[in-house]
Design goal:
This protein is of the alpha/beta class. It has 4 domains: about 200 residues, Rossmann fold, CATH 3.40.50; about 50 residues; about 210 residues, Rossmann fold, CATH 3.40.50; about 90 residues. The strands form 4 sheets. A 6-stranded mixed beta sheet has the order 5-6-7-3-8-9, with helices on both faces. It is globular. It starts with a strand and ends with a helix.
């Protein structure tokens, strides 16, 4: 469907990629990844014909239809949401406009528009578009609203609906999950999985890439590397490739040093001059291996910690909160203890952000009470937090304002670098930053001087993978209490220890992490992480005898309790056996992996191509098995803990 041949692109002295070749087949779903500034968006622009390549050529299969979703600012006019979703081609959009404006049934213009509309199955598109819009969380009364009256995020959803209605041969998506909540993301992932065409997507969402991709393309070292499988497979294979690249680079450097030493020693000697010249020519003809790129370094920074709070951090009692006629909560009760890590999940508009605002006292409550514990200080982060930044300060001055005295400027610059403020960027005025840059700066400020009760609303928006990892590291080290909303499943899994689902003004508490929530609610497969069709989970209720049923005797109740205890003991023994067995298997795999890694680190292993190939295959197999066994161990251990807790 698409072939790139020796494609090269540079901006001034900087080479983004050179002599890149790729063949993408129909039905392939590829993720495009790489460091910030590596050239991902530039490659998209070249494929879309928006900018020209310097060298090479692009060949498209004849008749291919391309659907493209930009990261931000997709255009919209006066059309309604439904009209936008059904405008799958320019021709069809024009026909729709004529049918809407020309009311003369005998008009040649209208008749032609009707013919085009029928040819492109326009009459079937409306029902399809309504179904897709509903899947993307639009309500029926949104369909006839002018699209331009919606927020930017909802306009992007309408454009996403248009692409799903269109069903092009190739979907090109630039950060498509940025504007989707968890519920909608699960639905969208399922649609992309079922999509029969090809997909090429830029994304920082690891769970999304794992869910939909059968291949990963990485721009690295000015080359385009292709890896089969999803994102997790890519990480394993990337380590193998980097080890091979490093070994090859070191071998070549030794060879070059050997030649140069010979030339230096014997170039002036008549008897060796011809050999020295031959080696000079060898070096001139040698295709040099690029030095390995430096991996994203883990931030070596001790984050300042907040003062200790009391054991009870926050309590909400019988809270009622509404926006005008829209009731959000009628009887909300919640207790938050010190050191908790709580992830809020639920459909868009359910009240997750409102709960954070209630806890932070940003919105007033109509009834009930909000109480903070002893010595509790609250920090609230949302996209609107950028409004409190001082526009006239430099980035570094704003970041270090009101920070702890233990935070040195170099520490702050290290953290700013992880959030993509590098070099002289730290001396820019805040007022010249983009919206995404201001959001990142506000997050840095919060991490440099954290309160002991953090409330974060979508903190990973506008962050790349390395920056998300930096936030995760900071919050893992954080000694305060954390409640957050995020649509990044990797982020949720890394930090959440307690999960609260919010829907229809009610909260359901799950005393476990996100995977435990998925398993306990029965809403989705914990293996895939899909959340399509999450049902409204309610707390389990104690069963009561119905009217007319005979009440159990005390003896019968004791017998039932005894049977229940024995059943739990048997379940516990079974789970303990499973956990022990998995631990033994993990230890064995780790030993085998250690031996294999020693072989991979030995340059002599690469002298025998068959041996090197077998070592790499073995490393991949061991890494996959170890990852699976660790995941199984986490699930079984979580089940065991729940059984133990129920016995106490």
């Amino acid at each position: 469907m698409l072939t790139l041949s020796n494609l090269s692109k540079r901006y001034g002295p900087k080479i983004l990629f050179r002599e890149v070749s790729l063949r993408m087949m129909r039905g392939e779903k590829m993720g495009l990844v790489g460091a910030n500034g590596a050239g991902k968006t530039t490659l998209f622009s070249i494929l879309l014909g928006e900018i020209d390549e310097d060298e090479g050529k692009i060949e498209w299969e004849k008749g291919n239809r391309i659907g493209y979703l930009p990261q931000e600012s997709a255009p919209t006019g006066e059309e309604t949401v439904l009209e936008l979703a059904t405008a799958t081609t320019n021709e069809l959009a024009q026909a729709l406009k004529i049918l809407r404006e020309d009311n003369d049934p005998a008009s040649p213009q209208r008749l032609e528009a009707q013919e085009i509309f029928a040819e492109q199955e326009g009459y079937n598109l409306e029902a399809k578009a309504k179904k897709i819009l509903s899947g993307l969380a639009f309500h029926q009364d949104d369909f006839n609203k002018p699209a331009h009256t919606l927020s930017g995020g909802w306009i992007m959803r309408a454009h996403l609906a248009r692409l799903l209605v269109m069903e092009p041969d190739l979907l090109m998506l630039d950060e498509p999950t940025n504007h989707l909540d968890l519920e909608t993301l699960g639905w969208f992932q399922a649609q992309v999985q079922k999509f029969s065409g090809s997909v090429l997507t830029i994304s920082h969402d690891r769970a999304f890439l794992n869910s939909i991709c059968n291949g990963i393309l990485e721009i690295s070292n000015r080359k385009l590397h292709r890896y089969p499988g999803n994102f997790d497979n890519y990480l394993i294979q990337k380590k193998e490739r980097e080890a091979q690249h490093l070994a090859a680079y070191r071998n070549q450097q030794r060879e070059i040093a050997h030649h140069e030493d010979f030339i230096r020693r014997f170039r002036a000697k008549a008897s060796k001059a011809s050999q020295a010249q031959a080696r000079i020519k060898t070096l001139e003809k040698m295709e040099r291996i690029d030095p390995p790129e430096e991996s994203d370094a883990t931030i070596n920074f001790t984050f300042p910690q907040p003062p200790r709070s009391g054991q009870r951090v926050a309590t909400l009692n019988a809270v009622r909160q509404a926006y005008g006629d829209h009731l959000v909560y009628s009887n909300l009760n919640l207790e938050v203890e010190k050191h908790e890590r709580i992830a809020l999940v639920g459909p868009n508009g359910a009240g997750k952000s409102t709960l954070l605002k209630i806890l932070s006292n940003i919105v007033p409550i109509d009834k009930g009470s909000r109480e903070l514990g002893h010595n509790v200080s609250v920090g609230y982060f949302s996209q609107q937090r950028v409004e409190v930044l001082d526009m006239e300060r430099s980035v570094i001055d704003e970041a270090t304002e009101n920070t702890d005295s233990s935070v040195h400027e170099q520490d702050a610059r290290t953290l700013l670098g992880a959030f993509l403020f590098r070099g002289d960027d730290v001396f820019k005025k805040v007022k010249v930053l983009s919206g995404g840059e201001k959001s990142r700066l506000a997050l840095v400020k919060l991490l440099l001087s954290p309160p002991n009760f953090l409330l974060l609303d979508e903190p990973t928006t506008h962050l790349d993978m390395a920056s998300i990892d930096a936030v995760i590291q900071a919050l893992r080290d954080y000694t305060g209490t954390l409640i957050f909303v995020s649509h990044d499943i990797h982020f949720i899994r890394a930090l959440g220890k307690r999960t609260i689902r919010i829907e229809s003004g009610k909260i359901t508490d799950y005393a476990g992490n996100y995977d435990y929530y998925l398993w306990k609610s029965g809403s989705a497969s914990a293996q895939t992480g899909l959340i399509e069709g999450l049902r409204d989970a309610r707390p389990e209720q104690t069963s009561h005898a119905k009217n007319g049923e005979k009440a159990l005797s005390a003896k019968e109740k004791r017998r039932q309790r005894s049977q229940e205890r024995e059943k739990k003991k048997a379940e516990r023994r079974k789970l303990e056996d499973k956990v022990r067995k998995l631990e033994k298997e993990i230890m064995q795999l780790e030993e085998e992996q250690g031996i294999c890694n020693e072989g991979l680190a030995n340059p002599d292993s690469y002298n025998d191509k068959d041996k090197a190939k077998e070592l790499n295959n073995q490393a991949s197999r061991l890494a996959r098995n170890l990852q699976q066994k660790n995941y199984e161990w986490e699930i079984e251990t979580e089940k065991l803990l729940q059984v133990v807790e129920s016995e106490n």
